[in-house]
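User: Show me a protein chain along with its predicted structure.
Assistant: Here is one chain, sequence first, then structure tokens.
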Amino acid sequence: MMKIKCSQKELSNAVTNVQRAVSSKTSLPALEGILIKASDNKITLCGYDLEIGIKTEIEATVDEAGEIVVSAKLLGDIVRRLPDSFVIIETDQRLITYISSGNADYQIVGISANEYPELPKFEEMEKLTIKSGILKNMIKQTLFAVSDDFSKPIYTGSLFDIEDNVFKIISVDGYRMAIRQEIIDCSKNSKFVVPGKTLSEILKLSSDEDNDIDIIIGQRHAIFNVDNYSIISRLIEGSFIDYKTTIPSDSKTEVTIKCRDFIGAVERMSLLTSDKIQSPIKFTVEENHVNLFCSTAIGKANDTLSAPITGEQVEIGFNNRYLLDALKNTDTDEIKLQLSGSLTPMKIVPVSGDEFLFLVVPMRLNNEN
């Protein structure tokens, strides 16, 4: 038995966010629902798919404390369309859930909260606090390089590497690598791999503000406390690549280039490529010019950009999508391209500082014009 009254807007927002952790395909019906617990003038809502859980609290008038599991999709669809500013939710002994607002009311079948699996409990090994805006930016600039190949699960997440007060997030998928770092105040060194899905949820729930996000790290799980939400996630187990050894130590050619101009030129070349028509975009770096060329079954295209260049002339080819993903996540006006020949990955770094480093693996070129 349960009876509560709460704001329609707050409930709708909470259900929408919590719903994203709800399992869509499961043999356990309770996991397709949201667990609602009412006590002490608040309600707690929880979604969980055994990999990631999202939990939040909202204020409510609780006339009768209790708990129930309700279909996430149905609850979300109902609450979003309710007409009034307040919602009343009641349950009875048969687990029938009554939802009313204004003149609209529903009766839907609930599931006993006893059938809902408990969220993991774990011992805290380390705690890290970082500003919401900074973590959001770090995830955004590295998420694009997370692998979607589940035959190598370790790379379907990002490595969080904390060493000597430097916090790095590293993503690798075999074609490119993204590293983003910040100086933080953290006494212990720590390494763990967070699934890409969890990172996407943190990104959606994080604000650009200066609010603190607490990361509580355990042996196999971590909790991210983002504003009024707790995201609990399993960590991916396995051995992550020694990323430091894959970064070319020197460069024979260096180009300083305006990021927006470079993106525009690559996008112009990309008009001749598609998923069906894959062909590298060729760059020739020489005498303060970057020449771009693309040739496919449907045609040819050329473009030239002026840019200060130091070092050797080089000819190199790239997959347009992998290169554009990296360029669009630099988040800066000017970048440096560092090259060490036509078969070594290209480094994309800031003109000053070491906030980010992106590697893009080149494609072999056929010698055609």
